[in-house]
Each structure stands twice: as structure tokens, then as C-alpha cells.
Input
Amino acid sequence: MSDLIKYAADLEGIVDGQAGGPPVDKWTPPLSGDMDLVIRRDGAWLHEGVVMTRARLVRAFSTILKREGADYFLVTPHEKWRIKVEDVPFMAVLMHVEGIGPSRRIIISTNVGDRVQLGTDHPLTMRVDKGERVPYVDIRAGLEAKIARSVYYDLVALGEVRSLKGEDIFGVYSGDVFFPFGAARDIFQEDETDQL
Output
């Protein structure tokens, strides 16, 4: 694990200015073992049960995160450590909008400093978790961010109803791509329930 710690420490100083991040998709070292690192559902990173508070170090580790199937790993050219991710590794915590209408650009920022524009390269998908619709966005190479509730409400405020295959669907446009949240009648019913 010494290589991993040294690598993350080296990255910590340069990661903010780095375009695209390290080429983790090209790194295929053998499994080194399991690391006591958990990314919780709320986006917090815990090492040996203690929350990692150095944001730059978390950001550095996030750039060497790799997903293979259902498993997640921190990798360097020489080491590969399996970690636990309770849901998805990132949280989408901020949203910025440029323009209006279908061609608007919706920029999503994560808790680890990634910024992506919702669109074909970074699609938004809806899942049902414990009876609630939960939005996710693909950040890179199969690594996703769960969209925080406050950001979801901002997206809903931009939403509109569009007829698809004879059904009224509520969703939002970004970069001329329509991202459906669900049947309009279901979405509006949920909003009324939330206000009670």
C-alpha cells in the first residue's frame, strides 16, 4: 500500500490543474488486497472507520478510482486495492445553468471536484430506491454520482412535460438531450405528497 499512499500524496499537489486525470483504464496490476476504505451513501470517505477530512487527498484518491463490474478499486501502475462503495462513489452537490430551453447547458459538480455537462457523454438516469426516485449522473468510466436532493429540486424547477410514445413525460433538457424523470402524473403526485 506504500505505493498507493505515495502516489496519492504526489497527486494531491497537482490534481486540481490536471486535465482528465491519470489513465487508470490502462493500469491493470494484480489485486494487492482489500483496503479498509469505505465510501458511504452520503459521499463521505472513511479510512479505517475515520472520516477523511483532507478534501485534496480525497480528490486525489478519487482520480485513481476504478470500477470493474460491481467492484471498486484504488489503482496505481503497480497496485490495486479493493474498497467498499455503499451506493456510488460521488455526490452531485452543485448545479450551474448556461442558456435557456432545450439547448441549455446544465453543469453538475461533484463533492470531489469533477464538473460535467449533462448530455450524451454524461447522462442522467433515474432509479427507484426505497420507493423514491433517485437521479444519478455518469461522471467517467462507469463511476457515477448520486444527485443531492437540493440539486434534484433545482433540476425539477427547469423541467417540462414532453409527449413520448403517447404518454406525458416530465424531464429536463441539457445540450438538446431530454432526460426523463418519469410519467408526469407520477412526478406531480410526488410533489403534492412532499408538500403535505
The helical segments are 2-12, 55-63, 149-158, 184-195. The longest strand covers residues 90-98. Residues 184-195 form the longest helix (12 residues).
